[in-house]
Amino acid sequence: MQFVPQSIDALASILLVAASFLGSFITAAMGIGGGMVLLAAMATLMPAPAIVPVHGVVQLGSNFGRAAILRADIDWHTFLYFGFGAIFGVAIGGSIVVTLSADVLRAGLGLFILYMVWGPKLRFVSSGQTVVVAFGVGASILTMFFGATGAFISSLLNQRGYQPRGLVATHSTCMVAQHTLKIIAFGILGFAFAEWAGLMVLMLVSGFAGTYLGSRVLTRLPAEVFAKGLKVILTFLAANLLASSFGLYALV
């Protein structure tokens, strides 16, 4: 199995494995944010067409583990309605994403990250299942371009009255559905997952290690300190993506 894809070097591969560890470390402690850190790092170190498909595989493993552990707390009705909408969203997004250039994708990722970090929190009507279907469509269109829509999905689920375990379980299950459909779509579109298989395995292993350690170490420290640090890191990475996409000096 090839652990270093031909399109990146060994140092980039090592940094990606480390980013997977860090992202899972953050998510285990703060509940969200790690996927965005991983996405931003991948967008800096990888070819643009590979970012979202590879990110989807790594995040599928992470979310599947959480969903399996908390399976008794999953709201299956919300999952089914969200998954139904996600089928259409992935199909629509997949028909558009292949027409965009690498620079447009990087610029879009940079702007998306900046909005999720600094933009106003989104609110939605949370009653009924029609909004869940619509949200599944919208979020899954976005995931084909930007990958890390966990915070976007949470903006809906947070308003539906779940207890903490139910919220994490249902959110993880919705993410599993979305990432699975996304991986299938990119496979149909011709993405060569086999080239990245070795690196994805290493990133999945390091992600599990990050989840294990994060749940034991990071939770002992003030959440607001890490929230501020996370904003700084994501802003830096997003600015670097925008600089790269417009042909300006990129720091990494």
Primary descriptors:
single chain; about 250 residues; mainly alpha; 10 helices; about 75% helix; globular
Can you walk through the features of this model?
This protein has helices spanning 10-30, 34-45, 48-69, 76-97, 102-118, 130-146, 150-157, 164-188, 197-217, 223-245. Helix 2 packs antiparallel against helix 3 (48-69). It is mainly α and 252 residues long. The mean pLDDT is 80. The protein is built from ten helices and no strands. Helix content is 75%, strand content 0%.
H/E topology pattern = HHHHHHHHHH
Class inferred from helices and paired strands: mainly alpha
Major pleated sheet: none
Number of helices: 10
What is the straight-line distance between the termini? 28 Å
Radius of gyration equals 17 Å
Shape: globular
Which percent bin holds the helix content? over 70%
Give start-end ranges of low-pLDDT stretches.
Answer: none
Q: What's the mean pLDDT score?
A: 80
User: Could you give the count of β-strands?
Assistant: 0
Beta-strand share of residues: under 5%
Summarize the structure.
The protein is an all-alpha fold and 252 residues long. The protein has helices at residues 10-30, 34-45, 48-69, 76-97, 102-118, 130-146, 150-157, 164-188, 197-217, 223-245. The chain is 75% helix and 0% strand.
Lay out the secondary structure:
Blueprint (H helix, E strand, L loop, with lengths): L9 H21 L3 H12 L2 H22 L6 H22 L4 H17 L11 H17 L3 H8 L6 H25 L8 H21 L5 H23 L7
Helix pairs in contact: 1-2, 1-9, 2-3, 2-10, 3-8, 3-9, 4-6, 4-8, 5-10, 7-8
